[in-house]
Design a protein that fits this description.
The protein is α/β, with parallel strands linked by helices. It has one domain: HUPs (Rossmann fold, 3-Layer(aba) Sandwich). The protein has helices spanning about 15-25, 50-70, 85-95, 110-115, 115-125, and strands spanning about 1-5, 30-35, 75-80, 100-105, 130. The N and C termini lie far apart (about 30 Å).
Length: about 140
């Protein structure tokens, strides 16, 4: 059985990600573990860790439901606010065959500005697939 680590935040409900999960689930027995980093809400100048956790938890619950609609076996968790640490923690807790890293489009994506897909790819020894949402998906 193949195991996939899905890392997404604002793009978790996007069609691009659902399609990637659907394709992998159709290819054979698979499990998907979703990690949503508990990043601060973008529309708040001030926030608490609890608020960031609550926003991420709601996004995770909705996103997992959307991915489960594809027929995939899905689990998930809210991770560290730093996406690199969230990924590291998930990899310490389980083994995966591939990482699906979903970002907003270039220009809108803080993760792309941080060069996250490249940094993750250099830090792990499993394939990393960068999935970029279309502007209208956001």
């Amino acid at each position: 059985m193949k195991r996939y680590l899905v890392v997404a935040n604002q793009t978790l409900g996007g069609d691009h990600l659902a399609e990637a999960v659907r394709e992998r689930a159709a290819a054979g027995p698979s499990e998907f573990h979703v990690v949503v980093p508990a990043t601060p809400p973008p529309d708040h100048a001030t926030y608490t860790e609890g608020e960031a956790e609550a926003v991420s938890r709601e996004r995770l619950d909705k996103g997992m439901a959307r991915l489960a609609e594809t027929g995939a076996a899905v689990t998930g968790e809210v991770g560290d606010a730093d996406p690199m640490l969230a990924i590291r923690d998930a990899l310490l807790a389980g083994s995966f065959d591939e990482i699906l890293l979903s970002t907003l489009p270039a220009g809108a994506s803080r993760w792309l500005k941080l060069d996250l897909p490249h940094r993750v790819d250099k830090a792990v020894d499993i394939p990393v697939v960068h999935l970029e949402a279309q502007a209208e998906e956001g």
